[in-house]
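Handout, section 4.2: multi-component inputs.
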Amino acid sequence: MAKVKVGVAGYGVIGLRLATGVALQEDMELVGVADVAPTLSVRGLVEAGMPYRFYNAMPENEEKLKAAGVPISGSLEDLVEQCDVMLDATNAGVGAKNKELYARMGKKAVFQGGEKNSVADVFFHGYANYEKGLGQQFLKLTSCNTTGLIRAVDALDRAVGVEKVAITIIRRVADPGDYHRGLTNALQMDKAPSHQAVDLMTIMPHVDATGILVHTPVTHGHIITVVASTRKKIDKANTLEILGAHPRIRTVKIEDGFLGNASLFRYARDMGKLRGDLYEIALWDESIVNSGNDIMFAINIPQESVVIPENMDAIRAAMQMQLTRDEGTAMTNRYLGIK
Amino acid sequence: MAKVKVGVAGYGVIGLRLATGVALQEDMELVGVADVAPTLSVRGLVEAGMPYRFYNAMPENEEKLKAAGVPISGSLEDLVEQCDVMLDATNAGVGAKNKELYARMGKKAVFQGGEKNSVADVFFHGYANYEKGLGQQFLKLTSCNTTGLIRAVDALDRAVGVEKVAITIIRRVADPGDYHRGLTNALQMDKAPSHQAVDLMTIMPHVDATGILVHTPVTHGHIITVVASTRKKIDKANTLEILGAHPRIRTVKIEDGFLGNASLFRYARDMGKLRGDLYEIALWDESIVNSGNDIMFAINIPQESVVIPENMDAIRAAMQMQLTRDEGTAMTNRYLGIK
Amino acid sequence: MAKVKVGVAGYGVIGLRLATGVALQEDMELVGVADVAPTLSVRGLVEAGMPYRFYNAMPENEEKLKAAGVPISGSLEDLVEQCDVMLDATNAGVGAKNKELYARMGKKAVFQGGEKNSVADVFFHGYANYEKGLGQQFLKLTSCNTTGLIRAVDALDRAVGVEKVAITIIRRVADPGDYHRGLTNALQMDKAPSHQAVDLMTIMPHVDATGILVHTPVTHGHIITVVASTRKKIDKANTLEILGAHPRIRTVKIEDGFLGNASLFRYARDMGKLRGDLYEIALWDESIVNSGNDIMFAINIPQESVVIPENMDAIRAAMQMQLTRDEGTAMTNRYLGIK
Amino acid sequence: MAKVKVGVAGYGVIGLRLATGVALQEDMELVGVADVAPTLSVRGLVEAGMPYRFYNAMPENEEKLKAAGVPISGSLEDLVEQCDVMLDATNAGVGAKNKELYARMGKKAVFQGGEKNSVADVFFHGYANYEKGLGQQFLKLTSCNTTGLIRAVDALDRAVGVEKVAITIIRRVADPGDYHRGLTNALQMDKAPSHQAVDLMTIMPHVDATGILVHTPVTHGHIITVVASTRKKIDKANTLEILGAHPRIRTVKIEDGFLGNASLFRYARDMGKLRGDLYEIALWDESIVNSGNDIMFAINIPQESVVIPENMDAIRAAMQMQLTRDEGTAMTNRYLGIK
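Output:
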């Protein structure tokens, strides 16, 4: 069977990881990546010997790109032309503009969480609503926090039913190497309810969700505490069993040295994981407690990499490569090395 | 009526604020403060012209203290001798040792949250159980987070009944100027349930409480999110009415510029509050949301100063200066300038 | 003698401290302060009971200010009208616009370091070139780092002659409570030479200065290391003697507990200094070393308050209140409580 | 020719990178690594499928290691027995104890910067004194800052002669994932002169060096500013030419997006460098300025990986694999992919 041809627009924190993710899928072919300027990420592509072809999405920057030694394989249109589906990881708002191009050329596209929901035909999550994405032209993924959160809530919901969740998002405010945003010695409040809770309800409309988000001056992963009211009361052992069985949830223990978000980053780097990335969220064993009949626990969201698997799922659904959630996510997991 | 004579043991972050607090109570007299070495705080006392008398709690450090120019008014015993009640803000564990001295000299004492509960006859909170402290010899205060949290939960409980609370503590990891502890670019998990939830249940045994605590690398105030199951369902307006009426809770709005914990610190400094200290916790207006029948909100805990009022309450209860919660806390509030 | 009437435009981090500074000068009268919106600082003025009169510099914001309960004493023009001299601490660039108003009304004005040099008749520093400011209409102050640095370099220069300095500025990136700028887990380079070195040469043209500035994610004070080539070689003892004699330089020791920039902030807060502000820079005793014939040392710059004294000096020079550097700075020091 | 057999004692931040470094040297064989407990790094080794054999250096922890699923290939003695040379990256002080074992078994060993100089026969740097290490039994490497700094100073010295250097070390206070040390919103002073300057003089005794070290709350690389007095005056172009020619110095530009230490980490991760590690220090083009006849510039030190190449050099010198500095460092560079 011919491989599905995939392009990536926007070679930033997410885009470059999407490229890696696609390159690992044996039933997909990464045609190339597009960006608009010789950013650090693009310069790294050059120093690494151009493992992927680069397309210039901003013709007026051709001289700058050439001055930086970037070999240009064509325009964004040239890239789209060769692809079956585009993963659009451009800055928020640009995707909506690119959509016109994708539509004109009759291609499918997957947008990231920063775009408005209206950009897409379906707001997608690999585990929660895979089937809704089947054959769709335009899909929008949930953002990093929502993607990880839904993995856990969906798993609980399928096992014992979830009525409502109240979440507290302890958000990392920037990625490693970010200089365009930051926070110094301050926690920052967002107005409640957090958009992640609202987005969860869009994907899982039968669950009542709300939450408060607080930004913190760190870079290696969000932590979310979840208070979930389940239809059937569960305890810590049940929770470990249910969430521990999820391929994209990793259970860790404080007593084993997983002291916080930075431990997971260190662990992945030590192991030699590419870029120190983990695709799984982590559930802390020692965080799980009952609050009356509710269950409360804390999860870690590796913001740079967590959405990669669900993006692969989205391609599989859109291109109807696998027709069921179980088959689609299993194939993604297999190629990404998720056990 | 003769003023109640108060001494402070331990002139650190809490101790020096206790001294200020006592000095403001017109029906108390601050006899002096004791510490063991020429710390920065003690050196500051010297540069400020010795507004309080200093007693040396570690005879072998007399030379060091004199070398630093600290006028010594006597030993710890000399201080205790002159007092009716001691506020013990020494390092955790030292209070238990000092207790022997207080007991031997027949004095009352108030210990801080770092000591074990067994050090005291009653685990005290000015609003939640004032009457339990009446006439007691040894009282232990709740820690900063618990003190602030109980203010809110007790107020809700008295108004509409609280069945259970699930809290997430986003903890500042150090105080401004701390070099002996710190966290750099990391969030750190504590094993659940947090001791603050457990302590709340000790003070308010009819409430079921649990929670997760996450340390964050900031210095200006903890933020706690609370999910409270109330006996009578309340909404945002009710919550604002109930908590807004509490003298030691300040309602603030993100849209007014109170963006996070650091805004409150800045606001207090700008105003000229001594040391930038606020005695009130803050409730964010825009954080209040319903989670089904539960109410969820976020509060800010100024860790350095929040326990000062309840310490004054403790003296009032122990010395039976006022015989009811309302009278005792009102007198404290009046002298501390809390409206 | 009639007091000099002073107004402050811009009630932010610097402006509110200028107001405090003027209020302490017994030979000056603070007419009032002006700003454009109900910022946190302005709200604090209201809660503090309006110790100063407030003037509205942006008529279209009158409703917002009134809604926040701010009593308005008039417009910016009304304030300027009543003053002999304005301290302009508005955002960079606004001062140049306000200058037109000051010029039209025939008033003197002192601008802060953020404005362009061309805004003023003289680029001023109380210790380095007081006499140049005598009787001038428009003066511009040096920025916080430059102000503190020049204190030290000027003192060395007067004592033993300074040929050149090479500085490394370890810059705090935001003030406590800043949410509009920040840096998270990153050091950031500026292009060399730093403007502070260039500015120093403008004020002290006989000194060759250069330097590198690195931003760091902290809020409580810059640290500058200085490598100074003096005409007469000096050692640590000489340096302590020369710099230690400067009223606006405070010598501190690591071994006394002054471990870094945050220790100085804590020390000032502990002492009860208003807002935890120090007017002096600090010189670390244990940082002083010879580099061949050069002398190297580290100083701490309290960025929020360091420029206040030199602003008072500027008023004295502009208004010819004292005709010499020694008399002018001495009077400022006396009223600010600098020994 | 038979490969040189190498073992690594201490599988922490440095040890695991040493293992990777040795594994890349085609003329060396990594026999295995030793540690004392199932740390995160050791757990990562297990999850990664045991690419290296593990030896247990603390027999009493065998149960804990087994419980964590760590396959144990033997004791530390078993590892040493099979090796020609040990790289000892244990905690400071442990190396001195291990030395007895190495001596008893007649093996060579290379110690890291944390050990005392007296542990070794020679204090070694691949570029500055390769020949001194030839055939020696015990070598001690310089610490991360000193290693990077000497690369630059040695290169200048060989080109134009260096008389003295005055350095300011802006030190990262912890590594990513460190929870046992940290600093929150504070800069911290060390007593001058910094040990790095002293160490430089031990390796390069003809250079006068001094410096000041300031700790900063970041994790991705130290920055050092250097003021160097050269025998022959050089300007920016000369400096770029001399330092740019060094294989282990990478020249970067702020205008290309290398804004600070975190940019280099991001760049390396983006490129897919293992663990985001760079072996080269970076020199900022826009930091280079003359200070009179001196040259001043800023370099970045990737603290986790910078010493790996010089450790490989040390093995080459100790084992006399190459007899000259040029041949030894060239072979290391070739196998590590340093151009």
